[in-house]
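User: Sequence recovery, please. Input:
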């Protein structure tokens, strides 16, 4: 056993949810860990921000009951789910300016019958469309929600005889909401995997979990406290400038003039940042070629502050055929009168300035909710690299967590989790890297 190897801290680069998950898991197993984050706060793309007088999240996040790794991580650091998350059975409502509103509510039946009943009793869909959606669901269940050769979700739905009206009212909003990628380019493999994970195991997997508190209070800050209580270290404002690799083994990293020695390093940075750190090393060229094939998609969130007595009437509401895709009522978070309007994926709106974007959104909300007054204030948050683009064939380019360099690991929602770019994918990737390191150290200890 190499004593120096065992006592050197594992270095985790990046304080998003993947990096935090890895660091917590290592600390939980009494392995020394140092987490380095370039920003002044933790959380990555799922963090809390102060904009003017508003304390908000940098994007409106929604968790699912199927997020077993995320929920397990939260519990492991001593956070009770009911204190930070509001859980409810799947209940979705979409306003449709051109047609009858569409609503879907699952039943209190075992999976997958809870979804079958929900589809059969969905409001705003014709009987033919409801039966067609149910038949599609049953076929995918028999095929274990997988297809061998990837294609676009749009092509899959055409092959499965899903009508244009059904696609518009059900499958399109579900796909964009889950994958943040348009139907005509979204991966059917990833979409089906998401449906299977959510609807084909336990009834509770399809539950919606809305945050009661800001994102920073759910994981980033409690995780940092946990790591430091377990003799780890969390350091902010530390931008890694170089990987130190020799003889195909990792030796450490460089932060400006400071060198950190390590035999295990987890790069939990966005794929474009990881690419820049890997490029100088010839042995990592195959991984770099994979990373160069990855792209991102944006999400825009508009926070609208109304009078405190304004309520949406439900915690979230979708909208069909409009720029605004979802409205979240943040009174659940104790922010009365504050609405979060979410616009997923790319489009013409990304070329507009904030005022033009606001004008379009307010016009749509005014048409749907004419009784609402003008907002007192508003704020636009654009996350241009919000998620990985879950396009056709992308899984073949998503790298594994283990690299050709001994002791160098990759974590992040872009890695080969087979999931879309979600908090759950990020957490799973971080846990996977940490567990591989834990297993290797145990093996060396036994020798």
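Assistant: Recovered sequence (447 residues):
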């Amino acid at each position: 056993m190499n004593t120096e190897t065992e006592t050197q801290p594992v270095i985790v680069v990046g304080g998003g949810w993947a990096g935090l998950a890895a660091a917590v898991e290592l600390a939980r197993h009494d392995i020394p860990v140092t987490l380095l984050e370039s920003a002044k706060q933790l959380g990555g793309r799922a963090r809390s921000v102060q904009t003017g007088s508003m304390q908000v999240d940098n994007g409106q996040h929604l968790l699912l009951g199927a997020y077993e790794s995320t929920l397990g991580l939260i519990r492991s650091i001593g956070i009770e789910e009911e204190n930070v998350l509001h859980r409810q059975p799947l209940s979705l409502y979409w306003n449709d300016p051109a047609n009858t509103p569409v609503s879907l509510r699952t039943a209190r039946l075992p999976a997958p019958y809870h979804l079958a009943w929900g589809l059969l009793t969905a409001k705003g869909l014709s009987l033919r469309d409801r039966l067609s959606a149910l038949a599609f669901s049953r076929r995918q269940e028999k095929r274990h929600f997988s297809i061998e050769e990837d294609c676009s979700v749009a092509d899959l739905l055409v092959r499965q005889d899903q009508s244009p009206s059904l696609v518009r009212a059900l499958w399109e909003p579900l796909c964009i909401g889950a994958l943040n990628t348009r139907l005509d380019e979204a991966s059917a493999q990833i979409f089906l995997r998401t449906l299977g994970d959510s609807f084909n195991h336990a009834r509770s997997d399809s539950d919606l979990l809305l945050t009661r508190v800001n994102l920073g209070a759910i994981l980033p800050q409690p995780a940092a406290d946990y790591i430091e209580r377990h003799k780890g270290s969390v350091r902010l404002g530390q931008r890694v400038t170089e990987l130190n690799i020799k003889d195909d083994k990792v030796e450490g990293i460089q932060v400006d003039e400071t060198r950190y020695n390590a035999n295990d390093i987890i790069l939990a940075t966005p794929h474009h940042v990881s690419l820049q750190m890997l490029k100088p090393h010839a042995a990592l060229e195959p991984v770099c070629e994979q990373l160069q094939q990855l792209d991102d998609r944006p999400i825009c969130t508009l926070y609208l502050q109304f009078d405190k007595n304004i309520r949406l009437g439900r915690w979230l509401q979708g909208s069909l055929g409009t720029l605004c895709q979802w409205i979240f009522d943040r009174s659940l978070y104790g922010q009365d009168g504050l609405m979060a309007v979410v616009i997923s994926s790319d489009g013409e709106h990304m070329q507009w300035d904030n005022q033009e974007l606001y004008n379009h959104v307010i016009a749509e909300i005014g048409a749907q909710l004419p009784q609402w007054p003008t907002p007192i204030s508003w704020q636009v948050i654009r996350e241009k690299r919000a998620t990985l683009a879950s396009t056709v064939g992308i899984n073949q380019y998503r790298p594994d967590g283990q690299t050709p360099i001994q002791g160098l690991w990759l974590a992040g929602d872009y890695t080969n989790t087979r999931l879309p770019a979600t908090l759950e994918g990020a957490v799973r990737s971080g846990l996977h890297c940490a567990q591989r390191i834990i297993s290797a150290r145990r093996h060396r200890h036994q020798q």
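The mean pLDDT is 95.
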